[in-house]
Amino acid sequence: MSQLITIIGTGNVASHLAPALEDAGHKIEAVYGRSQDRARLLGDRLNNPRIADNLDFTRNRSTLFIIAVSDNAIEKVASDIALPKQAVLAHTSGTTPLSSLDRPGLENTGVFYPLQTFSRQRDISFEGLPLLIEASNAFTDELLSETGESLKAWVSKATSEDRQGIHLAAMFANNFTNHMLDIAGRIMKQGGLDENLLKPLIRETVEKAMTLSPASAQTGPAVRGDTNTIQRHIRQLEYNPVIQELYRLISRSIAESKPGG
Amino acid sequence: MSQLITIIGTGNVASHLAPALEDAGHKIEAVYGRSQDRARLLGDRLNNPRIADNLDFTRNRSTLFIIAVSDNAIEKVASDIALPKQAVLAHTSGTTPLSSLDRPGLENTGVFYPLQTFSRQRDISFEGLPLLIEASNAFTDELLSETGESLKAWVSKATSEDRQGIHLAAMFANNFTNHMLDIAGRIMKQGGLDENLLKPLIRETVEKAMTLSPASAQTGPAVRGDTNTIQRHIRQLEYNPVIQELYRLISRSIAESKPGG
After folding, report:
1. ipTM value of the model?
2. Backbone angle region of A163, left / alpha / beta, with phi > 0 → left and psi within -120 to 50 → alpha
């Protein structure tokens, strides 16, 4: 069912989600942002929404209000916002519990968390994307799930506790993986070498991990117990003590993760 | 130019490289492996090579002998092998210096290092794959480069010192990235969550890092200085002290890698 939706926030999630919702047949009634300029910029990419200058939405006709602001601003928005009765209020955060939306008189609260890394410079399709739903009641659950399905997302239920685990796992899968790639690139630069040489290796590493499972895809000196190579690498990293220590600790962690290790 | 080639080794590199060389129009004259059974298995996938039972190749007609054995076996093979005069002897190792092939009477030595992670279970195309060449003289350089070009690989020159840096960078890009994905998967399992939920995030993380550069793609609590989230994640990891310490150290490394950090 097509919804009338109000978007609070103009950041990475809001600016990917709002156009995707319109593409899926919904209508964005209003956009609110702390910066009116950024709200207008997002509005320009949508079908003529009202640019709201405050959080009093009691006269809006939206059935769904989506808070897509930074984690530490969610509670403040939830306490300041005024909604029509029966409207659903949902946030899009992986780390924020559903209870952060608790407020007297507000019955239909939920979480609508797309498990993805969004950035202004890159288009993201919601098709097949995990969309983790939590809801205070069956009505809200149905509305959020239907909205997720309309995006062709992979709609899945997750409690606030589930999301804590997922968000921590995502730190390793996203942030920390990215940091490994950053260090690899810096080592190449340090040696005057073309970083692009690593790209086929990186692509295959990830495809292999996802096909075979990372545990069985693990190779290298740490899993082989090849201490000569480990010691040589550690000497090569003498110029950067933090990365050197990282090398040591990750090697230890790999060795201890071995089946039987 | 089409070459007659002898392959020493039956492991992951040999068993990907030998069929690719035949597909590119070369002929594998002989295969040698410590295990005759494995040499025969590889031979079965080729156009009827001789399965050699020793390293005396003085009567072979091959112009190129490729040693694709484990790093610590290369010197032993190089000292035991007997070659026709003028033949080129090359190894495929990232970590082993060209000088490990030095031997009186052996003039044409080289390195033919495909920068990729090979495993029995996955097909690898050599097209576009970095193939790092080092050679003792111009004749060898030309023969190895032409052979690499015939595979449509990305042929590039790299000294033994370059390869040391590239191999260390590849540790982070391959081994350590894979370990991050392994930990992410284990955190999901620990919480009874479906690991597949992370796949779209992992794919986008890597594509984004390769498009935008990992440094500018870095997001998350460490780069934002969000100590609340970091502390909560560290508490969540109390059940595994090594991974907990890894979390701390990677977060510190990310914070210190920030431009101006």
Report:
1. 0.94
2. alpha
